[in-house]
Task: structure prediction
Amino acid sequence: MRRTAALLGVAGLLAGTVGCGSLTSAATEVGGVRMTDPRPVRDGGTLTVALKSDPDKLDPSLAQTLVGRTVFAAMCEKLYDTDRTGTVVPQLAAALPKTSDGGRTVTIKVRHGLTFSDGTRLDAAAVARSLERHRTLAGSARATELGPVVKAEAAGPYTVRIRLKEPYVPLTGVLADRAGMVMSPKALAKYGKNFTNHPSCVGPFRYVERVAGDRIVLAKDPHYYDADQVHLDRVVYKTITDGNVRLANLRSGDVQVGDQMGPVEVQSSLTEKQLQLFTSPSLGYQGLGFNTGNVHGTGRKPGKLNTVIAREPRVREAFALALDRKLINKVVFQGMYEPACGPVSPESAIAPGKAGCPARDLPRAKKLLKEAGVHLPVKIELKVSTSPEDSRLGQVIQAMAREAGFDVRLRPMEYATLLEETDAGHYDAYVSGWSGRLDPDGNIASFVGTAGAMNTYGISDPDIDRLIAEGRTTQDPAARARVYGRLTDRIRDQHALIYLYRQKNYVVARKDVAGVRVYGDGLVRVKDAGYAR
Result:
């Protein structure tokens, strides 16, 4: 596959923008602080990383959360990864893919001499087995990402052949995330769907234990091919949903890294000399989703729901017009995020042309509700996570929508439970978000394509499906950008997924920690981390 901007997604996106330095300098000069910490690191010790929420399944085929991806980054390497500039580079693969047969056959060479954490050798057969599992396992969140794949097979001991229905431009970027994670065939045979409790991959750290809602413990893996360069003995991922509590634990030294720190906590930490900040722009989006047809669960064909919000697009549009993106950013996030009204980050090399977000329009919102003939106020239950940040967001949405004629009842839920409920279609509306992918298809197809693996909204639109297919097969970056411009407009017309803001990735660490990496994907990478000498 050719190394074009379309394939690499955001090549050059993050150069000079990922920071590591004192909080004071980072807050005032985010673009100018250091990207990596050059200080030497000593061997040994345990690093505790505080996560914003409890990860879902530790199974690359089934997982959906950003916090889960951060844990995977330490224990499950992929065929490809991204470097600090957003360029796709080989990881478990020996080189970038090669295509033939008009783009319908992709050949990947696998590195020699690599071993899973359970001692099993990595080879082409293991890669093919994981790809087929990602593609066909019931409930797989990777199914849509690998939808164009007909079959993955070993064409030699270290050669994988992937056969496609048609050319698939985003494939390299897809294989740089969970769809490219390779699981031990021995562990898959032994544990099956219970792999989540016994994960085994190739990575610097191996799984030790998990206490649900509290912690995940990893230990340095002696089987890892680069074990001599791994400094830490252990990494502990601890769930602390309240950002203020994460910050307090950082100050006390009970944790050394705080993931997904909110603007409030970042601002309150500016004078903390013992702390340092890592920051990068996000490739994802945050917003609000309505259930318009999720009757049978994600991954299945949408049906009809007999609710006002599902039946009447004018009601959904009225809700969207009741919201003020700029004010939400100012009130909830202290102006440290960016308003958003589409799925593709403007930082992307193939993003559609920048368009202004719709302004708040209460008269228009009230007129739409009147035209729809609905009884006022329109009652809606909005599910939000239990984090203080999401609670504040929910309260602001609630107040804004009330002025247009909506009665929004907030229902806070633990995040993993919220995902289960929305996947099953048991909701009216929920605060929805995605951490983002290199290729824009990764922000779109699974969420708004008919029967998409993460289409919790029940969206089914032939025009959207056609544009998704066109974007996947179009090679020219400029032409792809135009496709995603049309696709963004069509998604907006549905008013089922309302894009509200694009956050920045803020990670705070204690100053004695070195070697942590935070790129545009938002993951906290700890392979090179340790305590400064």
Observations:
- The longest helix spans residues 477-494.
- The chain is about 30% helix and 25% strand.
